[in-house]
Amino acid sequence: MIKRPENLYAHYHAHVYFEPGTVEQARALCEKAGELFGVAVGRVHEREVGPHPRWSCQLAFDSEVFDRLIPWLESERNGLDVFVHGLTGDDLADHTTHASWLGKPWELKLGMFRR
In this structure, which of 6, 17, 74, 76 has its CB flanked by the most CB atoms within 10 Å? Predict the structure, then answer.
């Protein structure tokens, strides 16, 4: 069963995953999230970055926005997969234990977090 996002942490990232055919859809979704919810919108990476196995754009937000943003992302993602994780200062735990999905879960490249 796919772990669904829960509002458990003070700060979060959501990474909207996309591919060449959906880059404009992802860009529009992220920009709209920024406009509607005041979340910080990162660059639209048209390549794999960090532990992410897909092209992605990061949204940074806090727990006060979570309960409005996550249902909106779920209803508006239109087939895009979204990786959501808490920010606790433990990068490995944030990308595993504190992680959840909207859509299909992807296997992350976690080697960069292992000591």
Answer: 17
The pLDDT value recorded for residue 72 is 98
Q: What is the fold, at CATH topology level, of the domain defined by 11-106?
A: Alpha-Beta Plaits (3.30.70)
**Crossing angle for the helix pair 23-37 and 63-76, to the nearest 10 degrees:** 140
- What are the pLDDT digits (tens) for 41-52? 999 999 999 999
Q: What are the residues whose beta carbons fall under 8 Å from the beta carbon of 21, sequence distance 6 or more?
A: none
Residues in the chain, total: 115
- Cβ atoms of 3 and 20 within 8 Å: the answer is no
Q: Could you write out the DSSP letters of every residue in 38-103?
A: -PEEEEEEEEE-TT-SSEEEEEEEEHHHHHHHHHHHHHH-TT-EEEEEE-SS-HHHHTTTTEEEES
Q: Are 107 and 83 in contact (CB under 8 A)?
A: no
pTM of the model: 0.94
Which pLDDT band, with edges at 50, 70 and 90, does 112 fall under? confident
